[in-house]
Amino acid sequence: MKHSFNPASLLPLYASCCVSAVERLCMIDTVLKRVQFPLYNWLEMT
């Protein structure tokens, strides 16, 4: 019983996982920036 393992078949899976992780990080980063700027402005005003 010969089972050939092809690492290239996993590349699309890894790529999609990396892309989704990067997109999630970028989304969190933009949300944090949107929350931080009004917070900083409010803290400077008070």
TrEMBL record:
<protein>
    <submittedName>
        <fullName>Uncharacterized protein</fullName>
    </submittedName>
</protein>
